[in-house]
Each structure stands twice: as C-alpha cells, then as structure tokens.
C-alpha cells in the first residue's frame, strides 16, 4: 500500500471507540478532495476496546505500549516516500490525550511526533485519582516532562487580558528534547460535566483554548460531542491542512518549523492573526460610484440593507475624537471580510473630489472577531491617544467597505474609558441581593466593560442580568466576552438573543490565582457588546445556584474522603457510648450518626495542614489545595447528611425489604436458595469461613469482585441476625403480654379470696379472742411479686434490647461498601475482560493485599462477636480521631488512599478484639 498523505492518528479515551475518528476523517476527506494543492490526510485510529481507563489505571500503561507499536507500524507504511520525513500528528480525546502525551516519553517515538492535539483531556491531573496505577502514570509523565520540556506557569504579574502574547514565565532545562513538539489543548466548557475546565490545560502546553472562544466555533461542547462537533472538527482540520506541505513528488508532510505551526495554531484556535503591514496602501482617487464621507458623531450607525454596489469610505477625524480616547468600530455583515477594511491616513481636500485619503496604513492587526448567530462581526477598538503618539500626521481613521450584495452595517461608538468601565467587588457567600450596575445605557452604546475584583477561586459565581429596556424595531442581542487574566486560553464568549430564555451571564474562573496574585490590579474582565438600537439595564448579584453547581463540579471527588471521615467518627462515637454505658441494651442502632463534632475537626485539619506542609520528612504530603473554608464545610456537611440517609436506608431495607434484597443477591451471585441457606448457616456457625471464601474469590478474580460480594453477604448476615432479633422480640413481647394477663387474673382472684378470708377471720376472732390474725397465702404472694417485678423490668428495658451490636456492624458495613466502590473500575475491567474472552489478560490489582487483610479482620470480628466491652477500645477511639484527620488531609484529592485507611481501621478493631480475647483466656486460666 502506497500512501502519500500526511499521517494523523486518533487516540480514543475513556470508554471511547475507534469509530469516533469518522467525523474528523470524513471532513478531512472532503477537504482533501476540494484542495487544489493536492494536500490530503491519512487518518489512522487505535482500538482500545472501549476500556474504562479513567476508572482503572491498569489500562494506561498497556495503552501507551500499544500506541507506541501503532506509531511504529504507521511509520513503516511510509518507508518508500522518497526519504521524506513523515512526522505524525496525534489527536487524543479524553484519556487518549494523556496516553498520547505519555507515549513521547520514549525518545525513539518522540522524534516522529510533530503535534499533539488534546480534546477535553485531563492532562496534568486525573479527574478522580481512583487507584495507585493512575497516580503512578501521571507522576511518571509529569516527572519526565519536567526535565525534558519547558514549563509555563503564570505568576503574580501575568495578565493575558491586556495582551495574549504576554509571555508567561517559563522554566527550562538544558535538555529540552520535547520542545519541538507542538501541544494544543482544548476544553469543552460548561457543558462538559465529566472533565472540568481547569483540568484541560497543562503547564507543558503551547496553546490552550476553550471551544466557546475558538473562532468560528463559539460553542460549549459536552465531553462526547467534542469529537463530532462539526464547527470544532472543521477548525481542527483547517489547522492540520494549514501546517501541511507538499513536495514535487506529491508527498504531503507536516512542517517541521515549530514557530510557523504555533502561529498557525493561534490563527485558528485563538484569534485570526493579521500581521502589521509596514507598506502603505494606495487608494484609487475616483472609482466609479465610490463615495467618501466624513462624520464626527460619537455614536453612528449606517445600514446597507441591499449591500454595496461600490466602495464606501467613511472618514473619522482624529482631532474630534481625541478627547474621548477610545473609538469602537464594528462591521456586521453576512460576508466574510478577509481583506483590510480599517486604515490610518492623512486626508486631503480637493475641489473636484472633496475630502479623501490617497494612501493609508492598515490597522487590520487590531481587528477581532465577535461571535454571532448567523453572520460575521468584526470589531476594532482603537486608542486615539496611543495611535497619535506614534503617527501624529494621521488626520483620519478610514473605514473602507468593499462592494457586496449582502446586507452590511457599520457601527461606531466613541467614548471615554472612565464612562464605560465599571469596577465591582465580587460578592462573597451571602443571600442573593440584586444590585444595579447601570440603570439604563445610553442609546447608541455598543461596548462597555465590567472589572470584577475578588474572583480568585473556581467556585464563587457572579450573576449578571442584562435586561433590554427598549429596542425599537431591532431585536435584542448581547455578546459577552469573559477574560481571566492569569489563565491563558480560558476566554469565554456568550451570545444572548431574543430567543434566549434566560438573559443571564454567569462569571467564574477555572482555577485559583497564583500565589500572591492581586485581583484588584488584574481583575477579571467582562466585555459587553450591545445592540446600539437598544437600551439596557445591567445588574448583578451573588449566584447561589451557580456557586453550588461549581462546587459540585469542582469538588465532588472530595465526598468519599469526607464520608469516610464521618463514618470513622461515627464508629468512634458508637464505641465510646458502648463502652461507657452501664447497660449495653441502651445503645441505639443509629447512635453516633447525628453529630456535628466532625465540623470542628475539619477546622483543626486546615490549621494542621499548614504545619505539615512545612515538614519535608513526611513520606506523603497532604493535599496542597488551599480553598476557602466554605468548601470544606459544605462538602463535609453533605457527607454527614449522606451518612444519615444511608444508615436510615439500610435500616429501612433491613426492616421492610430484607427478603427482596436477599432474592436480588441470589440472582447476582447465581446461587440457589438451598445453596444460599447452606452458605449462610456455614458463615453464621463458623464466621472464619467468611474470610476464607471471599479472600479466595478476590484472589481468583479481583479485589473489587471479592469486596462487592463480601459487602452483599455481610449485609445478608446482618439481615438474618435482624430477623432473628425480630422473632425473639416478638416472642418476648408475647410472653410479656401473657404474663400481664395472668397477673390480672391472679389479682382478681386475690381480691375475691381476700373478701372470703376476712369473713372467716372475723368469725374466728369472735370465737377465739386471743388468736392472732395471720394471712395464709405466702407462696401465692411471692409468685405474684416475682411476676410483677419481671413485667416491670421488661417495661424498663429499652426497645433496642438486642440491637447493641447492630450499629457497630452497620458502620463497618458502610466502610466496606466504600472500599468496594473504590474498586468499581477494577471490577468492571475484570468483568469486561471475561466477557470479551480475555481470560488470561493480566490486570494489575493494586488493592489485593488491603482486601485480604480487611476480609481477614472482618471474619475475625464476626468470629469473636465484636464489639465487646474492653478498656482497649479507648485507644481505638484515639486512633479513629487520627484517621478522621488523615482522610481530610491526605485523601481529598488522592481518593485511593481511603482503602488503606479503612484497612488500617479494620486491623485496629480486630487486634483489639483478639488481644481482649487472649486477655480473658489468661484470666480464666489463672482462676
């Protein structure tokens, strides 16, 4: 097979199919067929069998090796290409982007890679750090790139809103062998609920862009649609074709010049690059029908509904606008104005032709594109003072419109900066209170800006309401541009029309400011491009809904750590109440869940973290994230509520739906009723068999499967124990009722007997005056007294008699459930491998040792009938306090560490029970 196109390899991501390349390849095919130069692409794709690489890190290393082999295989297809160096472009979606980045760690592969395009990829940090393999994969890649490629990190002086070309400080290395590879990353924006904005960029990238700010895309994409969104696919292919070169033998290859590739990428993904032109442009004196018009109005609008038959030249005298400083010029047309249309010139006046410019200097490098619904919008914002400083001879600004048969409009808005820039302080956590920023804009206003100070974290959200007061005959329309000064490539464009249901703009930032960054000097900017025919009311407020939605999106992965911390504290409270209570019967089944002390621990952990960050000798460092206290409180409060809901759900299922769950478990495990009964009897009679059974399953399959089945059977054991409790409770209640009835009968007969006895005694006394009155019913009274005391004691007993161990075991069950949930990705990977017939595929199991230890400890606890009263549990309570702190300090970002903490807690409780058992045996022998 002889291939002459340039090779592009598509790398699918988490659960991604190799077929996702069809959108990119089909557009490239059509573009190649319509290309006069003969440039075309050869698209290849990699089949990872839709592996869940974001949930299970064991896939990543294998995918990297497979991609390496694929690259070498593609290279062999071009060996006969007349010695042309066929470098390759990698396009990675989702986790495929991370695999594409990792494969160039091999120097033998890196030399073949020209450019890497990341589409919605978590590059520097995983979305959720589920297992050690994911963490190891990211750490190895980061360590290699840190030594082999220049890093770009913003500092406190960075402000990309003033100039995109503002150089972000970088740290280089002597051996920067990867710097020739161009890396471009893209994020989907607000619609991408799987990979949040801040994860889609990288300190090693050359260019980053959000899809909502890419010219001719202007849309936010969800995670999946990013690979087939037509607007985005077109831009990606335009860039790839733009850096392609064809030789005399019709061989197509990619340009090795990185500067050229970078400029081309900026042109397509950031903003069209119109380079400053030093040569002056000469204008014909008198074209047939061309017109020259001078106007010095502050607000001007001219509409050509039927287009233009000849050139239209509009002159703006600089002397008239000098005091206003800023002049905004916009062209709104259904035709793409690719040529120069705005110039600076020196005008001359003649009697024959009037005022005109003979020549001018192009200002097209200041032109920017504004997103629009169905037409093209170009604008230029000129600083008259700055312009006249360098070109004092210019007398006019010339706007030159070429002939067209499509509707076109020219809009001009001259203003003073002080009149159009509004500074606000971003409101903190508070109740929504609408504040009016502009009561009513002046008719003719096209451009205004808002400077927002204090937005330094990724969750506070400010809501701006843009309400049209009056629009005349025109339709409502607002375009907003949000610029984050410390985050290059995170500009967002929002377009509101009369069809938009909600006239609201939400402003927030993708990630926190660099250390020491001053948002007062470098605030977030919101530029509003308005319809000059309308007047608007602009107001703002703190958005509770927007803020909480950002907290959920940014910090939902903290919830497992905080939920585990809550359960540790609940377990500690249950142990303490069980040990300190005089009667264990009074330990209620929901004991410990209704608490708020853990909120104080969160506060203490924040203070402790500042101390630990300065200690260099720790084997692992705490999470370096430093967000507001509100986030930790909200997430932890959610965890408390979730724990309460979970425990009541478990008790509800135990009480009302235990049999249903038992049947579901039988279907999941494919056991017959007889087999399950035998298994339950064996586990109940010999609890150590519980550990043997599920450890064997874990070793034979994977730790995730073993933990999941162990959790199910642990619940069934608790369910059977609860059914036994209900039977005993019902029997005891029936006995109590029977005793009360018998007592009543006896008391009735006693009253009758007492009356008869009194009559006999009276007769006897009359017959024998010296005889004493002695009652003759001692045995009856004694039995009756015993019965009444027994009934009274029963009434004094708590309703929860017999439930003293249930609270402990349900908490341990929930911890085991969290541990099995953390192994969900591994479980799915094993099931998928078995379903696809890959029986002998080796899947690394990083949790097999913690699983074996946990299941062993659980079987020991069941065997010894834990918990029992022992002074050793006071030490366990202290350890649980430390584990709560460990969850919050070390496990918020690196979630898989929770498995080790849960295992450690199981070990501590089991050791305490074993030690207490040996202690009692020794005491018994001494006696």
UniProtKB/TrEMBL annotation:
<comment type="similarity">
    <text>Belongs to the GPI inositol-deacylase family.</text>
</comment>
<feature type="transmembrane region" description="Helical">
    <location>
        <begin position="898"/>
        <end position="919"/>
    </location>
</feature>
<dbReference type="GO" id="GO:0006505">
    <property type="term" value="P:GPI anchor metabolic process"/>
</dbReference>
<dbReference type="Pfam" id="PF07819">
    <property type="entry name" value="PGAP1"/>
</dbReference>
<dbReference type="GO" id="GO:0050185">
    <property type="term" value="F:phosphatidylinositol deacylase activity"/>
</dbReference>
<protein>
    <recommendedName>
        <fullName>GPI inositol-deacylase</fullName>
        <ecNumber>3.1.-.-</ecNumber>
    </recommendedName>
</protein>
<feature type="transmembrane region" description="Helical">
    <location>
        <begin position="806"/>
        <end position="826"/>
    </location>
</feature>
<keyword id="KW-0378">Hydrolase</keyword>
<feature type="transmembrane region" description="Helical">
    <location>
        <begin position="690"/>
        <end position="717"/>
    </location>
</feature>
<keyword id="KW-0653">Protein transport</keyword>
<feature type="domain" description="GPI inositol-deacylase PGAP1-like alpha/beta">
    <location>
        <begin position="3"/>
        <end position="241"/>
    </location>
</feature>
<keyword id="KW-0256">Endoplasmic reticulum</keyword>
<feature type="transmembrane region" description="Helical">
    <location>
        <begin position="627"/>
        <end position="654"/>
    </location>
</feature>
<keyword id="KW-0472">Membrane</keyword>
<dbReference type="GO" id="GO:0005789">
    <property type="term" value="C:endoplasmic reticulum membrane"/>
</dbReference>
<comment type="function">
    <text>Involved in inositol deacylation of GPI-anchored proteins which plays important roles in the quality control and ER-associated degradation of GPI-anchored proteins.</text>
</comment>
<dbReference type="Pfam" id="PF24660">
    <property type="entry name" value="PGAP1_3rd"/>
</dbReference>
<keyword id="KW-1133">Transmembrane helix</keyword>
<dbReference type="GO" id="GO:0015031">
    <property type="term" value="P:protein transport"/>
</dbReference>
<dbReference type="InterPro" id="IPR012908">
    <property type="entry name" value="PGAP1-ab_dom-like"/>
</dbReference>
<dbReference type="GO" id="GO:0006888">
    <property type="term" value="P:endoplasmic reticulum to Golgi vesicle-mediated transport"/>
</dbReference>
<keyword id="KW-0812">Transmembrane</keyword>
<feature type="transmembrane region" description="Helical">
    <location>
        <begin position="872"/>
        <end position="891"/>
    </location>
</feature>
<keyword id="KW-0813">Transport</keyword>
<dbReference type="InterPro" id="IPR039529">
    <property type="entry name" value="PGAP1/BST1"/>
</dbReference>
<feature type="transmembrane region" description="Helical">
    <location>
        <begin position="847"/>
        <end position="866"/>
    </location>
</feature>
<dbReference type="InterPro" id="IPR029058">
    <property type="entry name" value="AB_hydrolase_fold"/>
</dbReference>
């Amino acid at each position: 097979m002889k291939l002459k196109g340039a090779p592009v390899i598509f790398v699918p991501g988490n659960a991604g199919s190799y077929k996702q390349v069809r959108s990119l390849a089909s557009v490239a095919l059509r573009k190649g067929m319509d290309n006069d130069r003969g440039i075309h692409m050869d698209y290849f794709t990699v089949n990872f069998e839709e592996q869940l690489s974001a949930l299970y890190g064991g896939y990543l290393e294998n995918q990297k090796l497979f991609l390496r082999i694929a690259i070498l295989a593609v290279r062999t297809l071009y060996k006969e290409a007349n010695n042309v160096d066929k470098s390759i472009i990698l396009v990675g979606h989702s986790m495929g982007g991370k695999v594409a980045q990792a494969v160039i760690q091999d120097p033998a592969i890196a030399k073949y890679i020209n450019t890497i395009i990341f589409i919605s990829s978590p590059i520097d940090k995983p979305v959720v750090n589920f297992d050690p393999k994911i963490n190891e994969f990211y750490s190895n890649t980061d360590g290699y790139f840190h030594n082999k490629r220049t890093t770009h990190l913003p500092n406190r002086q960075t402000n990309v809103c003033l100039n995109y070309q503002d150089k972000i400080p970088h740290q280089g290395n002597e051996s920067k062998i990867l710097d020739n590879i161009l890396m471009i990353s893209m994020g989907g924006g607000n619609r991408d609920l799987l990979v949040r904005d801040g994860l889609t960029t990288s300190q090693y990238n050359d260019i980053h862009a959000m899809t909502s700010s890419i010219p001719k895309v202007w849309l936010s994409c969800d995670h999946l649609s990013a690979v087939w969104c037509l607007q985005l696919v077109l831009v990606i292919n335009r860039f790839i074709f733009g850096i392609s070169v064809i030789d005399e033998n019709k061989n197509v290859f990619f340009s090795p010049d990185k500067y050229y590739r970078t400029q081309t990428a900026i042109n397509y993904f950031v903003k069209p690059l119109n380079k400053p032109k030093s040569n002056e442009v000469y204008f014909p004196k008198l074209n047939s029908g061309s017109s020259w018009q001078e106007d010095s109005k502050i607000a001007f609008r001219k509409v050509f509904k039927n287009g233009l038959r000849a050139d239209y030249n509009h002159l703006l005298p600089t002397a008239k606008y000098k005091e206003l400083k800023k002049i905004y010029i916009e062209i709104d047309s259904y035709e793409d104005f690719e040529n120069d249309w705005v110039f600076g010139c020196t005008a001359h006046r003649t009697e024959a032709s009037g005022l005109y410019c003979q020549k001018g200097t192009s200002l097209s490098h200041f032109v920017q594109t504004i997103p629009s619904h169905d037409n093209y919008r170009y604008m230029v914002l000129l600083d008259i003072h700055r312009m006249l400083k360098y070109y004092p001879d210019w007398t006019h600004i010339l706007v030159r419109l070429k002939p067209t048969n499509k509707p076109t409009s020219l809009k001009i808005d001259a203003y003073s900066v002080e009149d159009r820039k509004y500074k606000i302080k971003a409101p903190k956590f508070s109740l929504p209170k609408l504040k009016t920023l502009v009561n009513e804009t002046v008719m003719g206003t096209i451009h205004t800006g808002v400077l927002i100070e204090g937005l330094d974290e990724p969750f506070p959200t400010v809501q701006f309401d843009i309400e049209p007061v009056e629009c005349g005959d025109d339709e409502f329309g607002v375009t907003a541009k949000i610029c984050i000064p410390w985050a290059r490539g995170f500009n967002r464009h929002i377009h509101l029309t009369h069809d938009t249901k909600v006239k609201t703009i939400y402003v927030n930032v993708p990630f926190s400011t660099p250390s020491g960054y001053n948002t007062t000097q470098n605030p977030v900017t919101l530029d509003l491009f308005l319809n000059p025919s309308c007047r608007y009311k602009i107001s703002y407020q703190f958005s509770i809904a927007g803020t909480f939605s950002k907290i959920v999106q940014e910090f939902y992965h903290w919830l497992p750590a905080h939920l585990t911390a809550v359960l540790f504290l609940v377990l500690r409270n249950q142990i303490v109440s069980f040990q300190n209570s005089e009667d264990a019967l009074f330990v209620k089944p929901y004991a410990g869940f209704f608490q708020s002390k853990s909120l104080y621990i969160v506060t203490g952990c924040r203070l402790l973290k500042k101390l630990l960050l300065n200690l260099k000798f720790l084997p692992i460092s705490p999470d370096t994230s430093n967000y507001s206290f509100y986030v930790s409180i909200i997430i932890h409060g959610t965890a408390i509520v979730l724990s309460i809901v979970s425990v009541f759900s478990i008790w509800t299922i135990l009480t009302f739906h235990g049999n249903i769950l038992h049947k579901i478990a039988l279907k999941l495990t494919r056991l017959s009723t007889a087999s399950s009964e035998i298994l339950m009897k064996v586990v109940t009679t010999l609890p150590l068999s519980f550990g043997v059974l599920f450890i064997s399953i874990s070793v034979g399959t994977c730790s995730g499967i073993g933990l999941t089945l162990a959790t199910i059977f642990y619940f069934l054991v608790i369910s059977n124990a609860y059914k036994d409790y209900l039977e005993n409770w019902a029997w005891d209640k029936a006995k109590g009722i029977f005793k009360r009835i018998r007592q009543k009968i006896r008391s009735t007969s006693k009253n009758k007997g007492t009356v008869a006895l009194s009559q006999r005694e009276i007769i006897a006394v009359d017959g024998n005056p010296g005889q004493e009155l002695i009652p003759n019913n001692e045995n009856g009274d004694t039995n009756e007294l015993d019965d009444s005391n027994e009934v009274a004691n029963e009434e004094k007993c708590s309703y929860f008699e017999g439930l003293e161990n249930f609270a402990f075991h349900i908490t341990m069950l929930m911890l085991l459930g969290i541990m099995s949930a953390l192994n969900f990705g591994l479980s799915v990977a094993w099931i998928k491998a078995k379903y696809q017939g890959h029986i002998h595929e080796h899947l690394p199991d990083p949790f097999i040792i913690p699983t074996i230890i946990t299941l062993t400890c659980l079987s020991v606890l069941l065997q010894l009938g834990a918990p029992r009263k022992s002074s050793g549990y006071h030490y366990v309570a202290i350890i649980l306090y430390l584990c709560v702190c460990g969850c919050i300090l070390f496990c918020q970002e690196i979630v898989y560490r929770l498995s080790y903490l849960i295992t450690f807690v199981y070990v501590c409780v089991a050791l305490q029970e074993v030690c207490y058992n040996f202690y009692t045996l020794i005491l018994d022998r001494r006696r």
